[in-house]
Structure formats: C-alpha cells, structure tokens
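Appendix B, example 12.
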Amino acid sequence: MPTFIVFVLLLASSVSASDSKVSQDARSLTESYFMWLWHSRLYLYSAAALVFGLWFLLKKKSVSKDASKEKNDKVDKAAKKNDRETKEVHVSGVKIFYGSQTGTAKGFANELSEEVKSLGLPAEVIDMKDYDPDDQLADECISKSVCVFLVATYTDGQPTENAEWFCKWLEEASTDFRYGKTYLKGLRYAVFGLGNSVYVGHYNTVCKNVDKWLWMLSGRRIMTRGEGDCNVVKSLNGSIQADFLTWKVKFLNRLKTLAKGEKKSCSGKCKTEGSCKNKRKERQEEEKKASPQNNSSEDDLVESSSDEDESGLPDEKKTVLDVEDLGNIMNSVKKAKSKEESQRDGQMVKLSKLNGVQKIEDEGERREMITPALREALTKQGYKLIGSHSGVKLCRWTKSMLRGRGGCYKHTFYGIESHRCMETTPSLACANKCVFCWRHHTNPVGTEWRWKMDPAEKILEDALEKHQNMIRQFRGVPGVKPDRYEEGLAVKHCALSLVGEPIMYPEINNFIRLLHHHQISSFLVTNAQFPQEIRSLVPVTQLYVSVDASTQDSLKKIDRPLFKDFWPRFLDSLKALGEKKQRTVYRLTLVKSWNVEEMQAYSELIALGQPDFIEVKGVTYCGESSASSLTMANVPWHQEVVTFVQQLADMLPEYEIACEHEHSNCLLIAHTKFKMDGEWWTWIDYERFQELIQAYDESGGQQTFSALDYVAKTPSWALFGAQEQGFDPAETRFQRRNKSKDISGC
C-alpha cells in the first residue's frame, strides 16, 4: 500500500512539472509548492478516495466474516442443545400393575393406560401374578419408567389372589438385610388402593402396605397415595370410580411435569429468595381461585407424604422445632381429627322407633345407595330399581307357572302360587359378601343404614306397579295361560329375598304391615347378623335365617361378613329366631368341599334356635365370577343332598324329612309338631293368616298367634319319597334342550 501511494505522488509530480516548467523560474520555491498542491488537488482527492475505498472494503469483509462465524457458532450450540434435549428422556414409559379380585382394579388400569398413551408416553398394563419382582423390579430403577400400583384389599385385609406373591415378596424384601435399604433407589412409583371402609381395621390395608414397603426400599413416591372407597356413604367423591378419577387427574398432571424434566425446588438460600416466595404464593393463590372445591377433595383423598406436597407448605411453617414441641403438635392434630370424626359420627346416633336400626339425623347429608355405576350394573341384570335403595325382579318360577310348567320349591313346601309371587327388597345393601352370591357382589354392602331413605308406601306402590308391568309383557305370549295371567296381576305373596338385607331398612316393619294390609303374605330372609332387628320385627308369614355354615371359621370363609363380631351376632340371631311365635325357617346352603362335613355342629345350631323348618338346598352355580372361586365341582348332586339331609335328620330327635323338590335340589326337614295323625301340615292357610294378623294389629299386639294356627295339609305329591319328587301333577313338565340354564329365582 505505501509503495502504491508513492507511485501516485511521483506520477502527479511529473505531470505537474511538465505543465509548470515555464513559470518555475519566476516563482519561489514556496509558491511553487502550494501551486503544485492546488493544481494537483484532483489527483490527491482521487488517491485518498481510492485508499479509503480499499480500506472500507477490507474492513467490511472482515466484519462479515466475524458475524458469519458467530452466527454459525450459535447455530451449532443450538443444534447441540436440541440434540442433548432430544436424547435426554425423563420418562421412558409407565408400567401399571394391578391386583384385582372382581375386575375393578383391572378396569382402572386399562383406563389409566389409555390416558397415559394419549399423552404420547408408552404404557403397559401388568397383572401382578405374571410379574416376578425378584428378577424384574430392580430394573425399573434405571429404566426411567414410572410404576403405578392399583391394588385392592380382599378378605381380612389380605391382597387379592393375583397379588399375593408380589406383596409377600415385597414385604420380605423390605426387612431382608440381603437386599438392603436402597434396593429400589431410583424407582419412581405411585399407589392407588381399592377398599371398603365398612371393613373397620382393614380399609385399604394392602395399598398402605405396598406404599410403605416400596418406601422402605428407598423407592421414590412421586405423589401421594390414593384411597378409593366402595362405601358410597364415606367415599369423599361419592363412589370409588369418582375417587379414582380425582386421583387420576392429579397423577396425569404430575406425569406431565416429570416428562418435561423436573426442576429442583428453590432451597430458599439463593439471592432471589424474595421473588421465589412471591411467585410461589401467587401461584398458590391462583390455583386456589381456579379450583376451590377440587383442591380440598384431592387433599382429603390422599395422604400428605410426597416430596412435592411438603415443598408446598407455607414458609412460616418451615421452622426448626424442638423435640418437646412435637408432642404438643401431635396432640393438637389428634384432637382436631377426633373432633371432626365426632361431629361426623354425631349424625348416626338417632335410633328408629320401629326397629332400632341406626339412621342419620340429617336427611340432607345422606347419599343415595344406588350410584350411577351400580344402577347400570343392576339394570343389566334385569332389576327394576325403585327409588334410591330398592328393587324388584321377576322370578323365573313366576314365568314358569304362568305357562303351567311348574312352581318353585315354596309352592311344593308351603303352597305358594309362584305366578302370584313378587320377589323384591327394600334394601339392596347387605352385611355379607357370600362366595355363592348369585348377584356377583354388584350390590352395595354396609353394617348400618347411612343412605337416603325412601318411604315404605312409595316402595311398595312402585314395586307392585313394576311387577305388574313385567307380568303384562307376557300377555299373548305363546304358552301363557290366560287365567294364570289374570291371577298373576294380583300379587298374593312377597318374597323379601331378592338381594341384600331387607331387615336393614329402617321402616321394614311399616313395609311388612303394608304388605299385610294389601292381603299379601310375607316371606322375609335375613343373614343372621342383626339380632336386635329380628327381635323387634313384627310378625311375618314366615321368617328365614340363612345358616350357611356351622362353625366360626367356615362362616367367615363362606359368608365373608363385615362385622368383626359376626359369630356372636350369628348365634344371637338364632336365639332371637327361637323367640318368635310365627313360622321360622333355617335355610342351609350346601357347598361341596366347604360345609357339608359339619353335621354335628349343624345339629347344635338347630337346637339353639329350634326352627319350625329346615330347608337344605344345594348351592346354585351362577357362572364364573372373579369375586368367587366356586365352580361346578362345588355343586352337590341331588342324591348327595338327600344323603346329607337323612344323616342330619337322624341326629335331630324332633325333626323328620317332610318334603322334596328335586328340580331345585332342595329338601325340607320339619318339626314333628307339624305332623298330625301321621300326616304333614307344612302348607300355609294364607286366608287364615290374614285374619290372624289383622286381629293382632287391631289389638295392638295383644292378641297373638302361633305357627300352628295357620297350617294347611301338605299334598301327597309334595312329600319326600313321592314319585313326583315335588313336581305338581297339575302342571306340565317341560324339558329344555340346547338352552342356557336360567339360574335366577328365590
């Protein structure tokens, strides 16, 4: 560059010298110099412009190169960051384990799986019986998966059959030094339990234990434990389905946070502590305004035991406490909880004047017994639901006798006209969960009345109307006898044995009086768990007690009662039955390999209650059910039932076999006081009973009567040993072929 400038100046000098050679002699050197600058200004300007232009071009090129390099560096950094974020997966998937007996937990697992997949995350539903925790569970600690455990609590607080091994292994591992306390460190999990609060002392025991054992092995609880309650009375959201929905929403929100990459919460020691506090408080206030009701229900539903819940505590509570203060704090918490429970339970103290069943004082606080899910399930089974806790259903023997094809065993034993019998219940709830329940445990359970209550008049009115509507559907049906159809519209008998525990209904006495007022006989069945209600019961045509087993262990195994003191209640109920003056019946259901070997124990129970009759019936197989392990192998043959009855009758000095209904696999043992002059009088004079009960009511209970006051002679075809085997010869026997057997009926 300097060389170029010198060259330009020399060139300009030579040109200027040639132009001014003439006048050089006349001017001085100074004037000559300035004149040269003036005359050469154009060349000087051009040279300067050229130099500046070259400098500007070089500078711009250098800046452009630096900017391009910086831009490329930023792009490279952004690309590397995106690659790193893409490669870094925070949640690889969700594994949903379920322990289920009736299929509810399995249904919840499939439902949750679909929700997780909708978030774009893989989900797998796993049956606990198909999973080996010893070989596979530790792998979940490094797989970045989230494990969800949906577990139900079964009898006596035990896990369901498919979860037994998993829970056993987990319990042993939590206390086995060979595994160590950090065996499941890194495992992220959440637990939801399915239980029933009516089982006091066993409510959601399994889910609490699973949660505890995982925590003991250093598993990380990502959210608080959820506890669903089948008891609609105490369920925080009205049903176990609603409880699960509330928990599921919270879980999915938590899962979204984990999938994005969870940030560590501020320790409170950073420079921006004040702003962190303000932001946290503002966020809490916004959440509270957004969902003032949902927050409270969610917080109550689950236990505050997870890390994220603890971080949300108010700052003034996060202080260091002395050990001495902990006792005071715990006492105040217990007092507050006790006060809350006493206020809630205070509504349960009022007793019914009719039969002593506990009721809630405030009607507005009670919930309906029939939830939407329960209504749907029972409707599918053919129930005509009445109000909020009652139902009616057409017995298959009613349909049979409308066609003249024979009646039920009550027709054979007691002279009921099956086509004029209405099978109903004022309480769908029951205090047992029997293994042979033909309703597959779709009805609710409970130990006391805590639901909204419909008036007895309304229940009976609707029951008669719905029953008559079902009878009208047979009008014009081929095979239905016109005279039977007309008779069927006029109900004459009522079997309170449809489902549940009728005696739980607080107005049961009023309901029975209404039946008798309509000239309808009453056959009431109870499960021997309410002795005081049996004692306070008004006279019925015939009172049954189900005696499903003869020992404490077998009764617990078969009936699976809710009461802890079920055995004393059972014995006291039998004693209460013996105090009744009207007809009383023990109903024995034989389950092969379960209760057919307890002959001596049965005879002792019969001596305790001194019933008028003993019905012995083989269990009816109602199909496969996840709630029961019964199979066709547990159904005794009719000859096996006959052998059992003969052996039992031989042990009872005052009883003999009276009747048989081979079609129902049922026999009747009767007290010998009903055998007069060598003839059996097990049938009922229903018109005479109505006269007696009317006189009883009009006298205010002073004019009493006994079972022998309304007997009728038993026809020969109904007697044990008759050729007809209990089938009425006036009917036409009909044999079904290639038809699925209808197992419904009383």
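Residues 493-498+523-725 form a domain with the TIM Barrel fold (CATH 3.20.20.70). The radius of gyration is 43 Å.
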